[in-house]
């Protein structure tokens, strides 16, 4: 049998994903016939809208089954450049400044590999989605900066200033945010711009949830800021807005000088995004087909907040975007890992421990409301009964 020593040293710092760990356990429970309520994974439960599926079927019938350009098919790059221009007020040349990727996950990985080397530091939000393992795989060191729950999870500028060093290469910003549902304010972007220029940083702006906004919250792209355009990589994708997580289709836009190293990495990762998904994305982007789903997310959010409100201790900043809530644990509980695993084993309700997203998630849970109001109610009926029995 091969031993642990055969894995590369850097694998010591690459844990099995905390989200996937829960998800795999759900799979095992379901295979054994259990009825699991999924509030753990950021995977909308809707079918992909029919016009988008039809576009893929028609691409299949037309024989679009081959490798495409490393940058992506030109029709999609033009659709993406038009979207950046219309929705985000950013001008990217579709021929030189847009790359289609295999999910936003790959857009992030290739950007990190292009700009982060051995010993470089990367400023990563705390809490945040799993950027840190990509940074570590590239040989870099993630250095966290806090998102403050008191301000709706705005980046803490004083912590950014304290934690930046002459090794810092990249600043990662995510808005709307996973796991908190926070949205970065426009005036905060001015300060981030000043900070990025002062420290000569490349900025990776993950905007994959831009279409999922509630109440009167607004999304502002970092690259639309004149000081940030030259140094920003704008990452996006169709997974979340169009319920296309399985199609593996993301993209990035950046000025040509930044694209150059990224495309060279991209040529050696997955070559090109799935061809049928690229044709489907041409139909999806700019279609407005996400709107009914966003309305449904708003109802789900409201229901979830009502249910959280009934449980003492589960304090939750109101999410302004994405489909995650990030409440504190019920009264009397301190350990989010113990809480999540007991709840899953005893009541078949799945959530993610907040600490998976960084130390500021200690004592919190991430609840994904990418599931129906009925299933949210089912989960909370079980939780209330379980808490009453403790
Ligand atoms: N960024 C964030 C903040 C996410 O939450 C996710 C998916 N959970 C991704 C990127 C990756 O999305 P995909 O690879 O499906 O496009």
Largest sheet: 8 strands, mixed
Report mean pLDDT, rounded to a whole number. Answer: 96
CATH topology of the largest domain: Aspartate Aminotransferase, domain 2
Task: Quickly give the structural class.
Answer: alpha/beta
Total number of helices: 12
CATH architectural type of the largest domain: 3-Layer(aba) Sandwich
Name the poorly predicted regions.
none
What share of the residues does DSSP label as strand, in percent?
5-15%
Helix content: 25-40%
The total count of strands amounts to 13
Radius of gyration: 21 Å
Shape: globular
Determine the N-to-C terminus distance: 44 Å
Topology order in helix (H) and strand (E) letters: HEHHEHEHEEHEHEEEHHHEHEEEH
Query: Which ions, cofactors or small ligands are bound in this entry?
Result: 4'-deoxy-4'-aminopyridoxal-5'-phosphate
Strand order, main sheet: write it out.
2-9-8-7-6-3-4-5
CATH class of the largest domain: Alpha Beta
Number of domains: 2
CATH level 4 superfamily of the largest domain: Type I PLP-dependent aspartate aminotransferase-like (Major domain)
The gist of it:
38% of the residues lie in helices and 14% in strands.
Features:
eight-stranded mixed beta sheet, alpha/beta, 2 domains, Aspartate Aminotransferase, domain 2, three-stranded antiparallel beta sheet, 390 residues, Aspartate Aminotransferase, domain 1, binds 4'-deoxy-4'-aminopyridoxal-5'-phosphate, single chain
């Amino acid at each position: 049998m091969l031993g642990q020593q055969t894995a590369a040293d850097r694998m010591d710092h690459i844990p099995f994903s905390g989200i996937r760990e829960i998800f795999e356990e759900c799979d095992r429970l379901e295979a054994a016939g259990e009825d699991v309520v999924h509030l753990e994974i950021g995977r909308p439960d809707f079918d992909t809208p029919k016009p988008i599926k039809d576009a893929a079927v028609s691409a299949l019938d037309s024989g679009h089954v081959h490798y495409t350009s490393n940058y992506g098919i030109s029709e999609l790059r033009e659709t993406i450049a038009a979207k950046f221009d219309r929705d985000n007020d950013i001008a990217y040349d579709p021929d030189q400044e847009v790359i289609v990727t295999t999910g936003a996950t790959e857009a992030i990985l290739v950007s990190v590999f292009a700009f982060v080397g051995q010993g470089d530091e990367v400023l990563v939000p705390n809490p945040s989605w799993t950027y840190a393992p990509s940074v570590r795989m590239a040989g870099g060191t993630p250095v966290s900066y806090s998102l403050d729950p008191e301000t709706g999870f705005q980046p803490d500028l004083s912590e950014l200033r304290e934690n930046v060093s002459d090794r810092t290469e990249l600043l990662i910003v995510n808005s709307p945010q996973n796991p908190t549902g926070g949205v970065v304010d426009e005036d905060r972007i001015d300060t981030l711009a000043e900070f990025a220029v002062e420290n000569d940083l490349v900025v990776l702006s993950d905007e994959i949830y831009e279409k999922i906004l509630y109440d009167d919250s607004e999304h502002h792209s970092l690259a639309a800021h004149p000081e940030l355009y030259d140094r920003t990589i704008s990452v996006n994708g169709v997974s979340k807005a169009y319920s296309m997580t399985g199609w593996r289709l993301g993209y990035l836009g950046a000025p040509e000088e930044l694209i150059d190293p990224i495309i060279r990495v991209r040529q050696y990762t997955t070559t090109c995004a799935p061809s049928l998904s690229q044709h489907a994305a041409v139909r999806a982007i700019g279609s407005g087909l996400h709107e009914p789903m966003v309305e449904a997310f708003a109802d789900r959010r409201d229901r979830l907040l009502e249910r959280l409100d009934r449980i003492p201790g589960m304090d939750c900043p109101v999410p302004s975007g994405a489909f995650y809530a990030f409440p504190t644990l019920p009264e009397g509980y301190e350990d989010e890992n113990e809480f999540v695993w007991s709840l899953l084993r005893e009541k078949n309700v799945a959530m993610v421990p907040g600490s998976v997203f960084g130390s500021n998630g200690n004592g919190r849970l991430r609840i994904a409301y990418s599931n129906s109001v009925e299933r949210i109610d089912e989960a909370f009926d079980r939780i209330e009964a379980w808490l009453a029995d403790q």
